[in-house]
Design goal:
Blueprint: E1 3-6, H1 12-20, E2 24-27, H2 33-39, E3 45-48, H3 56-61, E4 67-70, H4 80-85, E5 89-92, H5 98-113, H6 116-124, E6 142-146, H7 150-162, E7 165-169, H8 175-181, E8 184-185, H9 188-194, E9 197-200, H10 214-219, E10 224-228, H11 237-245, E11 249-254, H12 265-272, E12 276-278, H13 287-306
Parallel strand pairs: 1-2, 1-3, 3-4, 4-5, 6-7, 6-9, 7-8, 9-10, 10-11, 11-12
Helix pairs in contact: 1-13, 5-7, 11-12
The structure holds nicotinamide-adenine-dinucleotide.
Nicotinamide-adenine-dinucleotide (NAD) binds near residues 101 and 202.
Keywords: Amino-acid biosynthesis, NAD, Oxidoreductase
Organism: Vulcanisaeta moutnovskia (strain 768-28)
Protein name: D-isomer specific 2-hydroxyacid dehydrogenase NAD-binding protein
Length: about 300
């Protein structure tokens, strides 16, 4: 009998479907690291989201493990190379959350451009700040998308429908996709200098760490709005806080942080800032995305187990 351990909260579909296929499933979301290390030798399949860190010591202890399944996209919490070197398959469901993240980005842009978060806070505090802040429309503005993969492309499509001009930058050749969606491909500097909104959708590679830092903020348009739903490490948080306090950046919306939850003093100051929208990494946290991810993942696991 194949045994699967699930260590983070996932859609019940995964538990039910794996069981239906004869897999013995232990659902232990929130399991401690010590317990994980103690029980992992009993399992052929490990299902995680981003909380569980599948590091070398976990992999070394997991002597029966055949599959590590990430219910989501990012594999940065898994030592993929090491797992592969031990003959373990690492799978994910990258396409499952694209629409949910893209919709969140559009919501973030409107919320930031109209300072909804600030107006909401002031009214709740007993104020009525009508006429105090003048927002901007998205229509006709330039959206710069860094990383033109699945999510970047979907954001571009939705933004075009609203009437934004979209320019994109990627490290790979994305010209064909750009032509199809009616967007311009530009170099990194042009994107940084000429965008009214910048939304980041890169995968986290060593190159992407702090790719938006002091130098980039200096080059940006005054009053730029920054959206990050990719990975927190892409932006230098201290430089972002400074750019916000200097008035260079008008508003920021973040679904990800360098430390989740925030712990450094500058991160705490940033998330409390009235012009910052912060959500706790909820990009894929919709019923639809979780179900889609579950279906994709279960299909892949069953296929591999049957090979
Ligand atoms: P993807 O792999 O389809 O696209 C990523 C794109 O970024 C690729 O085209 C790649 O070439 C490009 N890229 C990589 N490094 C780059 C760099 N330094 N400069 C410019 N471009 C670069 O990934 P995706 O599915 O579109 O996901 C994008 C990001 O969103 C990932 O970081 C993923 O982890 C994150 N994500 C977050 C959530 C959430 O809950 N907030 C959910 C899903 C995905």
């Amino acid at each position: 009998m194949v045994r699967a351990l699930i260590t983070d909260p996932v859609d019940e579909y995964i538990v039910n479907e794996l069981s239906r296929h004869g897999v013995i499933v232990d659902y232990k979301p929130g399991i401690s690291r010590d317990e994980l290390l103690r029980v992992i030798p009993n399992y052929e399949v490990l299902v995680v989201r981003s909380r569980t860190k599948v590091t070398k010591d976990v992999i070394d202890t997991a002597n029966k493990l055949r599959i590590i399944a990430r219910a989501g996209v990012g594999l940065d919490n898994i030592d993929v190379e090491y797992a592969k070197s031990k003959g373990i398959e690492v799978i994910n469901a990258p396409e499952g959350s694209t629409q949910s993240v893209a919709e969140l980005v559009i919501g973030f842009m409107i919320t930031a451009a109209r300072l909804v978060m600030l107006q909401d806070r002031l009214v709740k505090d007993g104020g009525w700040p009508k006429g105090k802040y003048v927002g901007t429309e998205l229509f006709g503005k330039v959206l710069g998308i860094i990383g033109f993969g699945r999510i970047g492309q979907r954001v571009a499509e939705l933004a075009r429908a609203i009437g934004m001009k979209v320019q994109v930058y990627d490290v790979i050749d994305v010209r064909d996709k750009a032509i199809k969606l009616g967007v311009d491909v530009v170099n990194f500097e042009t994107l940084i200098k000429d965008s009214d909104f910048i939304s980041i959708h890169v995968s986290l590679t060593p190159n992407a760490k702090h790719m938006i830092s002091e130098r980039e903020f200096r080059m940006m348009k005054d009053g730029v709005i920054i959206i990050n739903t990719s990975r927190g490490e892409v932006i230098d948080t201290r430089a972002l806080l400074k750019a916000l306090n200097d008035g260079k950046v008008a508003a920021v919306a973040l679904d990800v942080l360098e430390n989740e939850p925030p712990r450094e003093p500058w991160e705490i100051e940033l998330v409390k800032h009235p012009r910052v929208i912060i959500t706790p990494h909820i990009g894929a946290e919709t019923r639809e995305a979780q179900r889609r991810i579950a279906e994709i993942l279960v299909n892949k696991v069953i296929k591999l187990l049957n090979e």
